[in-house]
């Protein structure tokens, strides 16, 4: 595998997460060449220079366009606000770079479709940052499902809740503007959709409902402005595999910090997962006598690869940032032509189309088929 | 308060539960006269006689009609399969008896409406067996909501899951016949609806979806028969108070035994409850500094009346049957003209109409208004 | 089985619990004759009369001695403060009554030994109220141990914690007086000891430590009085079966309400139980592949007799008072000469001797053998 | 702060953990100079070269003595089996290097005392690897205690359990040899002791008990060999602050993977922590009305520094390896003369002396004072 030169755009929440992953991946896995952290782009040259110093990048630029066309760069990490994804990803792909773009692809489906077209035209790897699916525990769930351990899945429930918008007196900012997106649906609903996709495949039909817990929010200079986005969404689902489902999203859910609660019901058992306890999965099966059946809590362990690359002892716990390191390795394998577990634009577009169908359904108050 | 003579119809699951409640209520509460367990009716005189002996009833009959017209009887407990409720309840009311009928009212809305009419005409107390709402912890939740402890409620999620229909190889029986009802929706969806009603009031609009996890089930004599009812239901809700909601029901949910999982989100906090841990409630509020906020688990205690009537020490735990004793006392108070917390036919019809709207919505694939 | 006439002494916490049990046992089990609640004794005739009315006893007396010699009485329930147990139990036994005495036997070992002698001399059943061992979940644990499901037990940890003495500003009362007993050790340490005895047998050697969280407590009329008893105890154990163990007790443990936390480690698995979630047990075994082992939570169900006598559906939950009903049935079976699961004076004395050895050990700061 | 050149001895479990920490610390914190990973030592030149490549070290050696005297090296990470710690640490200190040595200091107290003397003589920083105390949640607990949030601490319980020695048929290896140490006590009992020290200070008196769950273990070539170490230990404690306590350790505890369970009882509340859910702490206080008190679960969040350096969102979870990164930063600050939270040899010796007193106590069956 050849070493890769990395360009990073953005150093916020996920930007730092990408930087840490690129920095750690070789030491953790020991089987990929150490990436070279070449260029970091930020909104200004000054900020870029400071962040490059902190995060260990060799060069810095205030102009992301120069980064995506830099001949030294092999891969571009795009971690800017969602509205910037299309231009950056398309430019990078057109410049012949591999792209690792944070979710979701774009704020409008049409833009996402253009990104997919650019990826196809480029022949380069275009992967999305859906780190939750990289959790060894999620892989374990996939394995259990593939083995038929809970039989045939017939019903699922996915919830994602956080409370960063829960305070009604928090000032109005762009997350409440319609131009930004629908609200919880695209802001983080794509996360449970990515897990659903990974574990159980596509969605056929949806019936969505979106709600605003607060009609307006205060403005910095006094007065209040009407909220335009929906912090809450709930969706009835029919999956392509025939199972029924429910999804519920709430970014105003006091007390929920990073909850992604998943219940998968099958003909021979049930699986339950909560991202707030990301090193655990609960499994109920029929493999024992009736009087001793129960949900068992399996702790992440070296038996759940690649947990073993991080820690040789069971039950010691991976962290959120470790998931990005795993994703980074998958990306490197994919670029090297190896089999990898990633959501690329080809699959990511399915998630975007599902989001679009849900939004349409919610606005029109009826069931909508997800296009393919 | 005058003593009451009790007639009990049915001695199955809830019949025994009623018998235990009538037997215990005076000793537990110490403030109501000891009911006289007068007559027990079962399908045959023989069975009735045996059960009367076991459950402490003075007389037995194989003819429920004689029971409901028996001049010695003040109150009739109706605990038979749902299809029998209308005839029995109406006959008892017409005979001038108070009625305590297990949920749901009937398998068809029209029958429930007739029952309501009979109750109104009789001037007698006509109460429904919705014991989950009698849990001191549910009352505590109600108190927290009334106090505004979690602010204004804007979103709710209610789930009810059991696994008594989860085995696809269990023989076909009446619960899979359409004539019995819709499936999970009316079989036990009325339970979460009763709690929703108690805590937050009525439902305005619904959009339901129902699913069959198993297309058919084996017959005793070989072959298989198509399942006609829906073991799974999921519903989008708009409440009369303006909150949005989701309800999900599954009687084929392996591993869930008596789960009623409730999440209530407000502008200042969140409440979470699980019937499988019925002596606990989780509360998240903003009353402390950010770095020490968290969901607290409150254990049922004498501070949550009428827990104190059962046990003087906190955290020792009530059981499922104790809820019926509380309901029994409420019924006795209501009959005596005192204020009581009960779901009577007047309110119960609201639950039935909601069920009806959900079923209609599911069959027609669209949102439906709940009639009032 | 012949019907029994019951005399009850005391109507406090456990007195009411006994009354409810005697009242419910026939209806719940259906296989024992309905006991006749004959006489109730309390500190005064007036109080006794009021309580008899509430609890359904036919007669009342302010003189417990008349009760224990009443020719109509078959069984005497003794639920008074511990200091009264010896006189009452011995008098009842000498009068030829069966005795059901709340734990512990006495506040001094010598008294307990006298009680045992009286029981032996009487030939009557002399049982102790150790209701926690009647939990169907505890029976399930016993079954798992007997089956060798967790292999050979080599280590145990038992904790019991409540917080009724946790407030340092609560007024001084008799629980802080040395004449009452040692403190947490005999006040409720006998509960975990009773479970230990039931599950794993006797204790060989102990090394105890007792501590006072608060040196003094306020007096009603001002000033403070030195606390003489120990709200905290911790004990190293060697069991007769060769296992090592730890026991820890704290009646000043803020937040713990009825916690009895048990961990049993064996060569092939582990069992964990918490009385505050008395309808659950956790089991870890090696019966599955390494990557899917975990503690499973088994919910109480009809498969765990006699849960089925209370509720036909799993996971619905028994309550604290139900345990007494089970114990009552065991007592009735024992009186009828059937096999029963009870701690009688013969075995209860083992618990008292263990308590005595622990107290001696704590006072002398050394290991002490438990006498047999 | 000047940049540091790092030498690492050992690349096993904790060796890799150190390497990852040195590699990540600058990017995570952004306020320390990027360390230079200079030399890695392993048992052979060949292994060292391979590991240096994987872990990003510039040079490799099969001779640890050459590393500790290498003039380019500023800090030596010692992560070899415990028996090697004294020679390596003393040699490094004598060569004027700062030392970061994994716990425990040594297998014999005399060796640990020599290490302390060498550290004092050197004037260099000599820190121990006690990463659990670096958890932001542990710091939060410390803060709560310092604030008096649970009042005066009067009782503590510490448990540490894993199951890596739980299989009685696992082959005999050095962990069962007496020359290696006492068993669970020094193998991992030092971890809870380090947390106890950090949160509550020193131990005054101990009474220990150690046990062997399995008398012998199979040898590779047939036959069995007697086990010489104690996989189980239990200890009664008196702390210097006057509180009583219990500690229990078991490395044969089936199902426990990385459990460190801590209960701290105070006059106004209780704190509970479990390392297997290292991103949570439970807090019970009296700050609300009685009917709504309960243990709250606080999730790790940016409000618990330095969590914020890893992730800006709450409840997303740090991992085990992140704790080492935090410790690494503390070490760098300490070397730079800043205030740091670390257990250095000066304090670590207190833990070693406590271990020694416990072992002595267990062997002699009596209480022993911890020397200072």
Count of extended strands of chain A: 17
Helices of chain A, by number, come to 11
Proportion of helical residues of chain A = 25-40%
The secondary-structure class of chain A comes to alpha/beta
Biggest pleated-sheet summary of chain A: 9 strands, mixed
Compute the gyration radius of chain A: what is it? 21 Å
- Spans of chain A of 5+ residues with little confidence (pLDDT < 50)? none
What value does the average pLDDT of chain A take?
97
* Largest interface, counted by CB within 8 Å of the partner chain's CB: A-B, 43 and 42 residues
What does this structure look like?
Four copies of one chain form a homotetramer. With 372 residues, chain A is α/β, with parallel strands linked by helices. In chain A, 33% of the residues lie in helices and 25% in strands. Chain A has a nine-stranded mixed sheet with strand order 16-15-14-13-7-12-11-8-17. Chain A has a six-stranded parallel sheet with strand order 3-2-1-4-5-6, sandwiched between helices. In chain A, helix 1 packs across helix 10 and helix 4 packs parallel to helix 5. The first copy, chain A, is globular and about 65 Å long. The model of chain A has no long low-confidence stretch (mean pLDDT 97). Chains in contact: A-B, A-C, A-D, B-C, B-D, C-D. Chains A and B meet through strand 7, strand 8, strand 11 and strand 12 of A and strand 7, strand 8, strand 11 and strand 12 of B.
């Amino acid at each position: 595998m050849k070493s890769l030169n990395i360009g990073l755009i953005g150093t916020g929440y996920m930007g730092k997460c990408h930087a840490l992953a690129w920095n750690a991946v070789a030491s953790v896995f020991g089987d990929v060449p150490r990436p070279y952290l070449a260029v970091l782009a930020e909104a200004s040259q000054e900020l870029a220079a400071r962040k490059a110093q902190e995060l260990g990048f060799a060069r810095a630029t205030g102009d992301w366009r120069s980064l995506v066309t830099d001949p030294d760069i092999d891969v571009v990490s795009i971690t800017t606000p969602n509205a910037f994804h299309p231009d950056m990803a398309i430019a990078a792909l057109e410049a012949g770079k591999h792209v690792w773009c944070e979710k979701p692809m774009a704020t409008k489906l049409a833009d996402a479709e253009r990104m997919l077209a650019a990826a196809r035209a480029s022949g380069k790897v275009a992967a999305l940052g859906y780190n939750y699916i990289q959790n060894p525990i999620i892989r374990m769930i996939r394995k259990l499902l593939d083995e038929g351990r809970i039989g045939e899945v017939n019903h699922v429930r996915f919830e994602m809740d956080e409370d960063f918008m829960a305070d009604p007196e928090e000032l109005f900012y762009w997350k409440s503007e319609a131009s930004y997106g629908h609200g919880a649906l695209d802001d983080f609903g794509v996360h449970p959709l990515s897990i659903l996709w990974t574990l159980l495949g596509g969605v056929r039909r949806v019936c969505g409902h979106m709600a605003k817990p607060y009609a307006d929010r205060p403005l910095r200079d006094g007065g209040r402005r009407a909220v335009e986005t929906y912090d809450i969404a709930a969706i009835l689902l029919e999956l392509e595999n025939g199972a029924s489902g429910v999804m519920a999203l709430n970014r105003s859910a006091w007390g929920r910090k990073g909850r992604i609660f998943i219940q998968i019901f099958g003909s021979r058992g049930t699986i339950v997962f909560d991202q707030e306890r990301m090193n655990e999965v609960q499994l109920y099966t029929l493999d024992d006598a009736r009087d001793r059946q129960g949900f068992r809590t399996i702790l992440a362990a070296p038996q759940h690869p690649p947990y073993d690359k991080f820690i040789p002892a069971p039950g010691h716990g991976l962290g959120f940032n470790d998931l990005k390191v795993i994703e980074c390795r998958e990306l490197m394998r994919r670029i090297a032509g190896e089999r990898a577990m990633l959501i690329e634009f080809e699959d990511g577009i399915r998630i975007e189309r599902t989001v679009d169908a849900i939004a349409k359904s919610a606005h029109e108050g009826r069931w909508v088929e997800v296009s393919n």
